[in-house]
Amino acid sequence: MVTSKSEVLVGRIILIVVLVLTLLPLLGMLSAALQSPDRLPTGLAWPTNPHWENFVTAFTVGHVWVLLGSSLLIVVVVVPVSLLFATLAGYALGNLRVRGGRVVLVAMVLGLTIPFEAIIIPLYYQITSYGLLNTQWAIILPLIGLYMPFGVFWMRAHFIGVPRELSEAARVDGAGVLQEFRRIQIPLARPALSALGILLFLWTWNQFLLPLVLVDDPDKRTMAGALGAFQGQYIDALPLLFAAALIVMLPTIIIYVIFQRQFIGALLQGAVKG
Amino acid sequence: MARRALLTGWLFLLPAVVAYCLFVLYPLLTAVQYSFYKWNGIGASTWVGLYNYLQIFTDPTLLAPIGNALVLIIYFTIIPVVSGLILATLIRNMRQNAFSSAARTILFLPQIVPLVAAGIAWSWMYAQTGTINSILNTVGLGFLSRSWLADFGTALPAVGLIGSWVLTGLCTVLLLTGMGKIDPSLYEAARIDGAGWFRMFGAVTLPGVRQEIVVLVTITIISALSSFDIIYTTTKGGPGTTTLVPGISIFRLAFVQGQVGLASALGIVLLILVLAVVLPVQRIARERD
């Protein structure tokens, strides 16, 4: 498009203003996190003697190692299991086209719109009756179920795109369904799987409502869930709370910066399919 | 043979179906059941029929969250989609360079950050001694400063704008990819017809990204109506009921005030509200295709 010099300039200025506004809350929090932990922080300014040790304090006081372990445990179970279940079902619906599969599909599509808040109360009593309240399983098991609508929908969309001749060729060569699934379909599904994996990781890491309701002990929550508990504890030491919030964000931001193309791609596809 | 194929297929479906039924469908049906009872969560429950629903639609403190959730659509849907359109057009008109790709990365950042952390960051933005007030003081507008989240007039727009902050990047980047798929010859043809920038935007760009807009409107409306994390970490619904949303009310009623039946009914109303807003959007989108 042909655009005049002044238009380009105005466009640039608007964009820069928006970028500053995007970063401002995070920079403001950083500036407050570096102030003295004993006083109420003030304003947006680089402190004259930055208290970097706040991050160390927040790290030890908040048991961040334990938290990282807990979050990782949750992610390491939830993501692979959800991927496996969603892939199996997506294959059945997209490639095998099982009779009666439509019912499953419709039920799953409806599930896409269910807000977590609508089922959190029964989940609480259900998890209590299993004796799993206050354990990581209280987060892991419901999340696997809650990810099924999106995951199955996503993998079905992938398998529909794979030419059926491929399966037929494999069958002619004498491969059974399981063999074909493992040798041919899974390797082909790798891009779809890794994008879905990124999304599930992010959603699990940032999950807040489930840990808030189902797990009292912050040490057994997800990172985001634990941050909610810190908010109550650090009410008189805001710089430490802000340092903790930045520590919680850091792992996802690092992974985002490294894999940003995959991240953006996954989230965009996620938006379109969801 | 056909029977065996059917069996294999259902075996593949089984794990997902079991997980879904156990942790989504079963709790959902239980929530519907709870919603017909008066129950404090511990003792005996009494059947009250539709009384809980009647209470939701007659009690102002229970209607307020539904109204607020609808107002949040302005901040979660309209502002991000409109700014997304503007920003995407700006970035597209720019030469592809380090600046434009850095812009994309930064704009998308709020989408990665946990909403809890976003809430905490913004509660500092809005605090009495926080970022916004200190900037206002610096530029001589100190008389405007206030505790933004505690003020009855500003609290709801203030939490709403956090939603705009989170969602604008997603909208921008998705619309940008949508615009990338528009056939350049359409612009060419419009220019030959003497269309100005504005006409071109209306006649070529907007119809070209219609599918993306439908998707964004759907997901941002769902996140407006079912917002929880941001409100919980900033205002918890206060001052008064000015920022109360259904998610916070459900949490408080069920786990603080012991009104499990009423809370469950509110959850069902929330689900119906989401469907009532999202399904027409989908239908309009499909009809126009």
TrEMBL record, chain A:
GO terms for cellular component: plasma membrane. The chain crosses the membrane at residues 12-34, 64-91, 103-125, 137-155, 192-214, 234-259. It is found in: Cell membrane. GO terms for biological process: transmembrane transport. Keywords: Cell membrane, Membrane, Transmembrane, Transmembrane helix, Transport. Its main location: membrane. PROSITE patterns: ABC_TM1. It is a multi-pass membrane protein. Residues 68-259 form the ABC transmembrane type-1 domain. Belongs to the binding-protein-dependent transport system permease family. PANTHER family: ABC TRANSPORTER PERMEASE PROTEIN MG189-RELATED (PTHR43744:SF12), ABC TRANSPORTER PERMEASE PROTEIN MG189-RELATED-RELATED (PTHR43744). This is Carbohydrate ABC transporter permease.
